[in-house]
Design goal:
With 114 residues, the chain is mainly alpha-helical. It has one domain. It has 3 helices and no strands. Helix 1 packs antiparallel against helix 2. The longest helix has 67 residues. It is rod-shaped. The two termini are 59 Å apart.
Length: 114
């Protein structure tokens, strides 16, 4: 009989230990990865903001250079041309960025990166 009492007495302890183990495992498998994802998202958002500001400033510099450094080429009836050229260059940059994103998100590209 002592063996039966010993096993009965240890069942609540085993259940408590199992519950603590399950809680610790769930915390490890959810909180840890979420923190890692949060860091990645924060770095991605920060990088995209910095890149966006840089591209806007670069586009404004190109526009200003076209307006001032081309002499009389873009004066009079052609004063709109620097704006169009800058817009076209920005459109090409956006198209290249979208193309790179789409190539990376295809199933074949995901298999190749592994």
């Amino acid at each position: 009989m002592p063996d039966q009492r010993k096993s009965e007495a240890s069942i609540p302890g085993t259940v408590t230990e199992l519950w603590e183990l399950v809680k610790a495992y769930a915390k490890q498998e959810t909180v840890g990865p979420l923190k890692g994802i949060g860091r990645s998202v924060a770095l991605g958002v920060g990088g995209s903001l910095v890149l966006s500001v840089g591209l806007i400033l670069l586009a404004l510099a190109a526009l200003r250079a076209l307006q001032t450094e081309t002499g009389s080429t873009f004066t009079g009836n052609w004063s709109w041309a620097p704006y169009l050229l800058t817009l076209v260059v920005l459109g090409v940059v956006i198209a290249l960025a979208l193309g790179a994103t789409r190539r990376r998100s295809t199933p074949d590209a995901r298999k190749a990166s592994r």
